[in-house]
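Notes from the 1:1 (GR / supervisor)

We went over the backlog. Supervisor wanted to see one worked example end to end before approving the batch request, so GR pasted a single chain during the call. The sequence is below; no edits were made to it. Supervisor asked that the structure be written out right there so they could see what the output format looks like.
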Amino acid sequence: MDKIDRKILTLLQKDATMPVAEIGRKVGLSTTPCWRRIQKMEEDGVIQRRVAVLDPNKVNVGVTVFVSVKTNEHNEAWMRKFSGVIDEFPEVVEFYRMSGDVDYLMRVVVPDIQAYDAFYKRLISKINLTDVSSAFAMGQIKYTTALPLDFAIVVDDDK
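Structure output shown during the call:
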């Protein structure tokens, strides 16, 4: 990855629908070399996919709940089972294995508290959990899908 690739990624993270010709113009390349770079980053897995970011309120999932899970089960088989259970819940939009006091953390989106309660009841019916703690977000202060690119390893193309 060089500085031009990083510029391309910055533009794509802001708007993945931007035409390749416009991206190329903004980074100082013609369309074909720019397209080749994008294709290479897709092949290398740098660009995993291009998606549409939706307004949660307009699709009726405006309530965000952070769910902390503790378990007494700390083995590979149970972790795979739990992961499989979570895959069945489209309400879970992020799912992490954690260090510290909490074993797993989920970000769940639902229309309201009643929908969260239904989610919770379905979840505990499918797998045994030691402790589940829920925190409802009162408001979103910052949200982005763009990753910081300042840390990306860039080949110094000036040498």
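Supervisor's comment: The mean pLDDT is 95.
Batch request approved.
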